[in-house]
Design a protein that fits this description.
Rna Polymerase Sigma Factor, Chain: A, 7-stranded parallel β-sheet, 12 strands, binds magnesium ion
């Protein structure tokens, strides 16, 4: 298989599952963590590898790479070449952010099976994947997929943990620090998605992800602090079913890699049913999560996901670099959405249209935050 983003949280879990299932790795890619990437190369012996930056090439374990005749690619364009030249029919996209979109489109163009953790691909350009089968690597969407039957669906529900700042007094929230926002209570994940959970941007992303994957706009979310219930499906007949499991991404990854093996083994601990007595659902409060007010607009105009994603990426980077406060992330997103809400989304048809709007939103957001 091809694994993009192998050194990240999803990437390292995907390698664990691949090892447990005995699946060979043909191609691996990573960003800046070359020390871990070298270990992965020695352990999994891929035929092709790609890194983000050419300046990191000297840090690769060249004696090993030469001895095993491993082909080396570099930069964004090299990543697309590596995908195209790989024989594998399964590709896992575990890259983070907008950088994952072009590789997702390349995987689609090559007709390979797309196992997608990179939700930003769907948030920014879901309609470019219309009709193409995608296996989601996201606990809520895996849960929805698991619950899907031929019965007629009335509504989909996904849950949120509430993120690292769910119990912080409201008055302290605007000035929360990156260290505080990165302490997720239930999941161990990459930096970006952990901050996206604290702002609730992640749940807006997931509402859009569900919209593009399942073709329904009747979608809601609520907070379930234990991350035990991931998704619920309400059927027209009045029944509701729920997907319950430990908060462990190896389960959705296993199904994406090899459904037949995933059905027959247990990779994650048994769920203690007694835990259910302590579960509580609560609504998502817009005073704590101001971006949540955007949900109806995004479901009415899902292509505005580009605006949400681009403004969020600019603000999130500035927050992690300590240039802005936590409260500025949501303020920037709301301002950007107001500024671009009249964009004629029906004119967005090609990748170039997306790229153009993405750049405009980034410039607007940076300027509004005083970064440029
Ligand atoms: P991460 O930051 O831990 O890992 C990202 C990987 O991509 C790393 O290997 C990094 O080196 C590489 N990378 C980063 N920027 C790159 C670039 N510009 N070009 C090439 N490579 C680059 O992120 P993660 O938490 O593993 O999340 C990956 C994706 O999966 C995200 O879209 C996230 O929203 C989604 N997701 C993650 C989880 C989770 O539990 N971590 C759950 C559901 C969905
Ligand atoms: Mg999720």
């Amino acid at each position: 298989m091809i694994l993009l983003g192998s050194t990240g949280s999803i990437g390292t879990n995907a390698l664990k599952v691949a090892t447990a299932f005995g699946l060979p790795i043909e191609s691996l890619s990573a960003g800046k963590n070359i020390a871990l990437f070298n270990e992965q190369i020695r352990r999994h012996r891929p035929k092709k590898i790609c890194i983000l930056d050419s300046e990191d090439l000297p840090k690769l374990d060249m004696p090993f790479i030469k001895a095993h005749d491993i082909e080396v690619f570099c930069t964004e364009s090299g990543l697309l070449e590596m995908i195209e030249s790989s024989q594998s029919t399964l590709a896992i996209n575990a890259l983070v952010g907008y950088a994952g979109l072009a590789p997702s489109l390349k995987i689609k163009q090559c007709g390979k099976k797309l196992a997608l953790a990179n939700k930003e691909s769907l948030v920014s350009a879901g309609w470019l994947f219309a009709g193409y089968p995608i296996t989601p690597i996201d606990s809520e969407h895996f849960g929805l997929w698991y619950l899907h039957t031929s019965r007629k669906i009335h509504k989909l529900y996904i849950t949120a943990s509430g993120g690292a700042l769910r119990d912080m007094p409201l008055a302290d929230l605007p000035s929360a620090t990156p260290a505080q926002a990165l302490k997720h209570p239930n999941w161990s994940m990459g930096q970006k998605i952990t901050i996206d959970s604290a702002t609730m941007v992640n749940k807006l992303f997931e509402v859009l992800e569900a919209y593009w994957l399942f073709g329904l706009s009747s979608i809601d979310a609520f907070i379930e602090e234990h991350s035990a219930i991931h998704a619920l499906v309400e059927f027209v007949d009045g029944s509701i079913t729920a997907h319950i499991s430990h908060a462990d991404m190896q389960l959705p990854i296993a199904y994406a890699l090899d459904e037949q093996q995933a059905k027959c083994v247990r990779l994650i601990p048994r769920f203690d049913i007694a835990t259910l007595t302590s579960l509580r659902f609560s609504p998502i409060d817009v005073r704590r999560y101001p971006v949540w007010e955007l949900k109806p607009t995004l479901l009415a105009y899902p292509k505005l996901g580009i605006v949400l994603n681009a403004s969020n990426e600019v603000a999130l980077r500035a927050f992690l670099d300590s240039h802005i406060c936590f409260g500025d992330i949501s303020a920037c997103i709301l301002q950007s959405m107001r500024h671009f809400e009249s964009v004629k989304t029906h004119t967005l048809t090609h990748l170039q249209d997306i790229k153009r709007l993405d750049s405009e939103v980034r410039a607007f957001s940076a300027s509004w935050l005083g970064l440029s």
